[in-house]
Design a protein that fits this description.
This protein is an alpha/beta fold and 242 residues long. The chain has nine helices and six strands, in the order H-H-H-E-H-H-E-H-H-E-H-E-E-H-E. The strands form two sheets. The protein has a four-stranded parallel beta sheet with strand order 1-6-5-2. The protein has a two-stranded antiparallel ribbon with strand order 3-4. Helix 9 links the parallel strand 5 and strand 6.
């Protein structure tokens, strides 16, 4: 009977793959397996890795030796313990973020987590996603950062707490200094004991100006977190690196 069930399951899987073939998370063309990229999209991703700034992990064009910081971090040392992004923000990375956030393609969170897992630093105690305001969560149906955080937790074994941090105020999609002002005071921790003394991995989909993650980092550190490392799928980088 077990052999018959195995054969039936195999045929059912083959039929499903034929009806709903795996698709590239970047452009949706059929590919050979789930979470695989087509050649064009794979070549369009910029994978981020050392050499990079010792403070913010901004990539360097060449190896400057250990402990070297970029000019921005020398001028204004960050509160966070680094920004670990899987890829640089570009057309393919942007398409994936939009399809996850607005297109309902929640499986893309697993694809993102698979690329993020290798650059997660050792020593993190807890993964906390950047929260959505309840009205946006209600309209979208899910928090894309929480989906990524859950998938990353399954890959790394680091505990995930999607409710440790909450958004108390809805904020408009602004940029730069205006964004920093609007998100100031927009986050809260219902129970400080959930983060106190822990090294936090703050999970988000895309790192742009850093205003939102800075606001989250401030309150996490103020409420007793040991450190906060930003973990994200893509990061906006300047055209020319230091």
């Amino acid at each position: 009977m077990s052999v018959i069930r195995a054969i039936a399951a195999r045929w059912a899987g083959a039929a499903l793959a034929l009806a709903l073939p795996p698709r590239c998370p970047g452009c949706a063309v059929p590919v050979e397996a789930d979470h695989r990229f087509c050649a064009a999209c794979w070549s369009g991703l910029r994978l981020l890795a050392p050499p990079w700034c010792a403070a913010c992990n901004r990539p360097f064009a060449y190896d400057r030796g250990g402990g070297v910081r970029c000019a921005a971090c020398v001028a204004s040392p960050p509160l966070h313990a680094g920004i670990r992004a899987a890829v640089g923000y570009g057309p393919v990375a942007r398409a994936m973020a939009l399809r996850l956030k607005y297109g309902g393609r929640i499986g893309i969170a697993v694809t993102m987590a698979a690329r993020m897992a290798p650059i997660v630093p050792d020593g993190l105690d807890l993964l906390v996603p950047v929260p959505l305001h309840r009205w946006r969560l209600w309209s979208r149906g899910y928090n894309q950062a929480a989906l990524i955080g859950g998938a990353l937790a399954r890959r790394t074994g680091i505990p995930h707490d999607p409710l440790a941090l909450v958004r108390t105020r809805a904020t408009p999609p602004l940029g730069g200094r205006e964004r920093a002002r609007t998100v100031r005071g927009a986050f809260a921790l219902p129970d400080e004991a959930r983060v106190a003394g822990r090294a936090i991995g703050l999970v988000d989909d895309v790192y742009t100006s850093g205003a939102t993650t800075d606001a989250c980092t401030r309150i996490l550190l103020a409420r007793g977190a040991q450190s906060v490392t930003i973990l994200c799928w893509a990061r906006v980088l300047p055209e020319a690196d230091d």
